Amino acid sequence: MAVLKALRQTPSALQRNPILFVPVLVILLFQIPQLVLQAVNPLVASIVSMVLSLVFIFVMPFFQAGIVGMADEALDGRTSLDSFLRAGKTNYVSVLAASLVLVAVNFVLGFVAFFVAIFGGFAILSDTGGGIGIVGLVIIGLIGALVILAYLLFVFFVQFYSQAIVVDDLGAVDGLKHSISVVRHHLVSTLGYSVLVGILGGVAGGVFGIASLLASPQSTSALALPEVSLAGVVGVTLLVIAFGTLFGGFFGVYSVAFYRTINPGATDGA
Fold first, then answer.
1. What is the number of other CB atoms lying within 10 angstroms of the CB of residue 200?
2. Which helix (H) or strand (E) holds 91?
3. pLDDT digits (tens, 9 = 90+) for 204-260
4. Can you tell me the distance from the alpha carbon of 108 to that of 116, in angstroms, rounded to the nearest whole number?
5. What does the alpha-carbon distance between residue 166 and residue 178 come to, in Å, rounded to a whole number?
6. 74, 17 Cβ separation under 8 angstroms
7. Helix locations, 127-229, DSSP H
8. Measuring CA to CA, which residue among 150, 89, 86 is closest to residue 116?
9. What is the band of 126 on the pLDDT scale with cuts at 50, 70, 90?
10. What is the pTM of this model?
């Protein structure tokens, strides 16, 4: 099974190439100011978070392509930071273009969902005579569910676009198309992979969420939790970075190993 085969390949690749954790660590180090500022000045922390989010839109494609390139090389033997830089520079434009397509689709679907929610809430609040009825609520609910389903299906089918671009040397559009094609021919395996990654991602997200709560004085006060000192916030942040580095490095290699397993064009393909 592709999920298990990729799982077996990942630890050995990481053991041979601990350098794979370095790019992930660099990304996570950018989170330190944000988490520490939450304990000092939450308003400034929010501004920093928004600025970093905008910067990451244009920076992450380089790291994304570089990590995929390193992982692909590591699965066959040894890799290095030179491979990270080479893959990042070579595939930056294509990965950036594909990621902007994803951002645009997310924006459109998010706008539709927001509009449906606002319209539904306004209709319910203004409907004093009960004219909207259960049928109207069901229709609004179905539209919202369809938007969510469309988003999940889109993400499910295009999730390997960066792997397709870097591993198979494709452009942005061809990378998205190839991801859709590969997933379409391996639906069951990809579903198992997505469930596993979703569970692991949920655990990682929970860790980051708890760290964010502990770092925020407002959150600790609202939840009646003891306030964490600045030194404690730094300690929690360092633990989160260590955990995030391990998870990010594992996921980076595992995603490429799984893609190579289900991709008929890869040297390790099934």
1. 14
2. helix 81-126
3. 888 777 776 766 665 555 555 566 666 776 777 788 888 889 999 999 999 999 999
4. 12
5. 12
6. yes
7. 133-158, 161-167, 172-185, 187-215, 217-222
8. 150
9. low
10. 0.84
